[in-house]
Give the backbone structure.
Amino acid sequence: MTALLALTSSLLWGFADFGGGLLTRRMPALVVVVASQAVAAVLLLGAVAATGAVGDAGPRLLYAVAAGVIGPLAMFCFYRALAIGPMGVVSPLATVGVAVPVGLGLVLGERPGAAQAAGIAVAVAGVALAGGPELRGAAVARRAVVLTLTAAFGFGAVMALITEASAGGGLLLALCVQRVCNVAVGGAALLLSVRRDPVGALPAGGLWPAVRLRLPSLAWVGVADVAANGSYALAAHGGQVSVAAVLASLYPVATALLARGVLKERLRPVQAVGAGLALVGTVLLAAG
């Protein structure tokens, strides 16, 4: 069951990433984040009310609050990177965020094994190869790499936090609190952006018409993302965390295949090798 849940998580994340990146090519990234997470929050609030999950409230929900604060920044950076950079490079690079729980373990006194040490070296080499040509190229391409790495470490933190928030049960409430905080933080950031630059912060033709037109796609991104988080947390709690992390980290495969099949993306050979090494390094880190 752990393997099935983790693979389900990776598939859902892959489709959500592709959908979010595609939407961000048509409307501002912050609008995509807030609108998609708002749909998920409404559905989760209804589920919590219907199931009485509010009774699971406890101190661990602070981890969900922290995840909800970090999440919008990570998603904004990631969707923006997917919009301006090759999805086949951006998505694998984002998986190096698994270094966050590894680093936390080091702080707490753990020492990496041989596989983890190799994973760190391979992931760094992959980042250098995949991002190197872009960093030496146009400013837009360099920004895509920086945004991706920012998102990667944000995602790593969110995965660790939401797992901790649901460690004693109450996963549904934890996911709900996380999404409500996502909407609150993202909404505040969107409001500030609108005040600073009303034209650039909102879609052409107005916010509501653009959201209404793409509401099914936005809903799919939000629901797929929250379902992926839930599946991963269940997989991590139900079996070995290393196995769950390895299988859940395969989501870039789905995103890259969709980008190649739908968008006809083509990568430079060195970028393809680098993206593959980043993914291999991530697997080694999670499995070590």
